[in-house]
Amino acid sequence: MEESQLATGRTCKPRFSWFSGDVGLFNKPTKFVLDGAEYEHADPHPEHESGSVTRFESRTEPEVIALVPLVGGGTVEVHGYATFYSKDWVDVVWTDEGAQHMSCWVPAPDVRRPDEGEWRGRYVQF
Question: Which of the listed CATH numbers 3.90.1690, 2.30.30, 1.25.40, 3.40.50 matches domain 53-118?
Answer without folding.
Answer: 2.30.30
